[in-house]
Amino acid sequence: MKIFLLGGTKDSTNIIEHIKENYDSYILTTTTTEYGAKLAREGGSDDTIARPIPKDEIKEMILNEKFDILIDATHPFAKHITQTSTSIAKELKLPYIRFERPTTNLENIDTSHIHYVDSFDEAGKLIENEFTEGNVLHFAGANTMGDILKYVSVDRFYPRILKVESSIEKCKSLNVDSNHIIPMKGAASLEENIELIERYDASVMITKESGEIGGVIEKIEAANEKDVAVIMIQRPKIDSLEKNDIVSNLEELDIKLKSFF
């Protein structure tokens, strides 16, 4: 089984490990960063590509190298990638799986500090209008900083990002002080989040609804502990994604793979 895997997430690393352990397979994993590719290789991916790949190039690779299936395990907020992957699968009539981590179960969590918004632009406006005191912890990736900084002073802004060249350059282009950059490696614990809130005198944190694997619960609990607001950007809806294509755990992935092969 020859698998073209769109990765760069903890989910994708788990998928690689699971497939290599249970199936006779070759996996090519594409990520947008070298860090993501490193994790994929450590997980057992046979090959990796660490750069954004245009749609036509992906199609050409799939056809030329005769891949059997396309699996999209990118971040829930990588909307454009998932739109591209569904389009490729339909055009090539290729078996396709979207691995989408479940939304966060907040049934037993105090959600009184959460403010839900549908976009980062909306988040920036909310901070500008309602959270004018204290600093802002941005736990939502380098590519979304610009939308917030249209409304929020860079002097109040503290992003937690992967310290890779593209993210550092993004910070420089937005005039984010290097002393404000919080290095990131994986999801932070409750204690780490509390420590960041205290250290940077934060009154609000911004996060995506990225599921439990993204550390959402630990962020909410830290905010509750320190009486800090959480601005939660809700997941984008992807119209081209069909419900039958989605799996949310490795057991469902197995069922789907066996239905194809």
**Backbone structural class:** alpha/beta
What is the approximate shape?
Answer: elongated
CATH superfamily grouping of the largest domain: NAD(P)-binding Rossmann-like Domain
Rg for CA atoms? 19 Å
Largest sheet: 6 strands, parallel
Counting H and I runs of at least 4 residues, what is the number of helices?
Answer: 10
Percent helix, as a range, is 25-40%
User: Which regions contain 5 or more consecutive residues with pLDDT less than 50?
Assistant: none
What is the CATH topology of the largest domain? Answer: Rossmann fold
**First-last Cα distance:** 8 Å
Q: Which sequence of strands runs across the widest sheet? A: 3-2-1-4-5-12
Series of H and E elements: EHEHEHEHEEHEHEHEHEHEEH
Question: How much strand content do the residues show?
Answer: 15-25%
Quick one: CATH class of the largest domain?
Alpha Beta
Determine the mean pLDDT.
92
Based on DSSP secondary structure assignment, what is the total number of beta strands?
A: 12
